[in-house]
């Protein structure tokens, strides 16, 4: 049977995600932003977490690590490059690390940018990737620890996944991202349509995620550095991909 996935809100705009395999009973928690919200989700689903898959060291992704480890005796996986900053880490991962969940292969993809050691988890059999603060719906993570060309390279790696891949992201930032995206790519009809949908979802306090890589390829300006209309709008027709990406990221920081 396919993996079951439950996404729930944590803190103000973080997502918690539980991934469950009913055959083995194994459950992975993607990041641990908020103990109370996670315990509620565990109770609601009946899925007891057996592992935490940590994407990066930020407080809003690791805060509940130790409390949950104590409560459930679970194992904590996370990026080797940030191991010193990840409370309770048991298994250190880097690109190409051999990892399985419930008998299914999990690929570790290093995506430095937002933080220096950020990793994403890709489940090729289930066509799903947990990208945390690397890609958001119509957005990308802020460049806190690495410069734009490094992030652009990380995003490029994720773009090579199958377009149908479902993406789970770390935050509900979609509405602000949509409004910004329209300033970069104002003639994109797929974007305009999506922005209108997102306005409605958020007005009803509904989540806008998960998304798919295909949807992001069509509407996310941070993944569309190659797009002639965007380049023209920025006056950067002949610039490098990394420079176009850097300019879009800079504009978002000042938006
Ligand atoms: Zn973060
Ligand atoms: Fe975050």
Can you put this structure into words, describing what you see?
This protein has helices spanning 35-45, 59-62, 65-72, 148-159, 174-184, 189-203, 213-219, 228-234, 241-253, and strands at residues 4-10, 14-20, 27-30, 51-53, 75-79, 91-93, 99-101, 104-110, 119-123, 128-132, 135-136, 139-140, 166-169, 211-212. The protein is globular, with a radius of gyration of 18 Å. Helix 4 crosses helix 9 (241-253) and helix 5 (174-184) runs antiparallel to helix 6 (189-203). The chain is built from nine helices and 14 strands. It folds into two domains: 4-169, Ribonuclease Z/Hydroxyacylglutathione hydrolase-like (Metallo-beta-lactamase, Chain A, 4-Layer Sandwich), CATH 3.60.15.10; 174-253, no CATH class. The strands form three sheets. Strands 1-2-3-4-5-6 form a six-stranded mixed β-sheet, with helices on one face. The protein is α/β, with parallel strands linked by helices and 255 residues long. The mean pLDDT is 98. The protein is 35% helix and 23% strand. The protein binds zinc ion and fe (iii) ion (FE). Zinc ion binds next to loops.
């Amino acid at each position: 049977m396919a993996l079951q996935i439950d996404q729930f809100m944590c803190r103000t705009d973080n997502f918690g995600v539980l991934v469950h395999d009913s055959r083995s009973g194994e459950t992975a928690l993607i990041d641990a932003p908020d103990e109370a919200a996670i315990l509620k989700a565990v109770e609601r689903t009946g899925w007891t977490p057996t592992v935490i898959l940590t994407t990066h060291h930020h407080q809003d992704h690791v805060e509940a690590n130790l409390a949950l480890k104590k409560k459930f005796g679970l194992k904590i996986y996370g990026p080797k490059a940030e191991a010193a900053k990840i409370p309770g880490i048991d298994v250190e991962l880097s690109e190409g690390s051999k990892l399985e969940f419930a008998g299914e292969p999990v690929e570790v993809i290093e995506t430095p940018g937002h933080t220096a050691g950020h990793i994403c988890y890709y489940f090729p059999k289930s066509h799903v990737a947990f990208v945390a603060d690397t890609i958001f719906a119509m957005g990308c993570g802020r460049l806190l620890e690495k410069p734009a060309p490094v992030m652009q390279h990380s995003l490029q790696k994720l773009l090579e996944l199958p377009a149908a891949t479902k993406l789970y992201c770390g935050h509900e930032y979609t509405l602000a991202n949509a409004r910004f995206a329209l300033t970069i790519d104002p003639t994109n009809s797929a974007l305009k349509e999506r922005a209108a949908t997102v306005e409605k979802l958020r007005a009803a306090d509904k989540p806008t995620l998960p998304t798919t890589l295909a949807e992001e390829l069509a509407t996310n300006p941070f993944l569309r550095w190659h797009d002639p209309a965007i380049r023209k709008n920025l006056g950067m027709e002949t610039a490098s991909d990394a420079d176009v990406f850097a300019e879009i990221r800079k504009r978002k920081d000042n938006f």
